[in-house]
Design a protein that fits this description.
344 residues; 12 strands
Length: 344
């Protein structure tokens, strides 16, 4: 995430802020301009999202939209019962994470296809909670993707629930933004890989996705990941099936680029210990870097420093991963795939 300023007094403000703490100016984020604009700026072409006072959405709308919702909010087509206070809290947290997702999508210039349709094949989100049926049984909502529809169980917004699942699955970390980045990968796999020229390269790197998905998941949940999985996969879950390997790698790539953008924005550039090692030069915009090796070298150097920072205050490692050559090859596939479809 890059740094933002109040449009009036230029005080630093954060991505989710709606008001400056110094001059009290009300403002909003305009995705097409990638900046904060004052609400009282006299611009009739932009206006606040209707969810501003509902869930604290600080994004602005522009042009004509039937929903009076911002680019991110109008992709949500089903939501929980907001008269329930806990549902409203969870929905607020989920939409906050989704705005981060859309920020990256816009920065990568990935195609959004049609943005207001909920028909099959078009990107839309359903943020739903478990329900009790007429017989008193719990009807579980499964997080996942199907033909453009991304479903997220709102329980993931509960820290205790998410931490319980994280430990049960042996995951280094489990976050809301991670869920969104993972699930959006399935959407873009359908759009950018399935049936395209890149499918053969995909299979050579990730494996054959035609292997039965349901059977693969059953085997994974029964036996878990194979010994030594971390040498070739970014997560244990990535071992379940080539689709999940791609989605986990895609999410990891988004994590890396977002982290690098934040580091560069704040001038964080740890340097090698050896005097003979090349000096790390800050890159203004990691979203536009063509050479993945440059990004990975910067990322590894940064994460070593961040791990040491966390250890110094008694926290777990910030980045408990090792990027092997095999993982680099998978990241490069994602990197090249995005570049090929956004720079035309």
């Amino acid at each position: 995430m890059r740094r933002f300023q109040c449009p009036k007094c230029e005080n630093e403000v954060h991505f989710d802020n709606r008001q400056c703490v110094v001059c009290t100016t009300q403002f909003g984020y305009l995705p097409s301009a990638d900046k904060m604009l004052a609400l009282s700026g006299g611009n009739d072409e932009t206006y606040p999202c209707e969810n501003r006072n509902v869930i604290g959405c600080n994004w602005l709308c522009e042009g004509v939209t039937n929903l009076n919702q911002c680019l991110s909010c109008r992709h949500t087509t089903k939501l929980p019962d907001l008269s329930v206070s806990e549902n409203l809290r969870q929905f607020t947290l989920l939409e906050r994470a989704k705005r981060q997702l859309f920020y990256s999508i816009m920065k990568f210039r990935l195609p959004l296809y049609r943005s207001t349709e909920s028909a099959e094949g078009y990107l839309h989100f359903e943020l739903l909670g478990d329900e009790i049926d007429s017989e008193g049984e719990i009807e579980r909502v499964m997080t996942g993707h199907k033909q453009g529809r991304i479903t997220i169980n709102i329980a993931e917004a509960d820290d205790a629930t998410r931490e319980k699942i994280r430990k049960a699955h042996g995951e280094p970390y489990r976050t809301l933004i991670g869920h969104f980045r993972h699930e959006i990968a399935h959407f873009y796999w359908d759009k950018l890989v399935a049936g395209k020229q890149s499918i053969d390269e995909f299979r050579a790197i990730f494996g054959d996705e035609r292997a039965d998905y349901s059977d693969a998941l059953k085997v994974y949940y029964k036996k878990s990941a194979p010994h030594g999985w971390s040498k070739s996969f970014v997560s244990a879950y990535a071992t379940a099936h080539p689709w999940e390997d791609f989605a986990e790698t895609w999410a990891h790539y988004f994590h890396m680029i977002s982290g690098l953008e934040t580091a560069y924005a704040y001038g964080i550039s740890p340097q090698p210990v050896k005097d003979s090692a090349p000096y790390m030069v800050l890159i203004s915009d990691p979203f536009d870097v063509i050479d993945l090796r440059i990004l990975v070298d910067h990322w590894v150097t940064l994460t070593v420093a961040m791990n040491e920072m966390n250890r110094s205050i008694g926290n777990f490692d910030y980045y408990p991963f090792v990027l092997s050559d095999s993982i680099f090859r998978k990241l490069k596939f994602v990197h090249d795939l995005i570049g090929a479809h956004t720079k035309n």
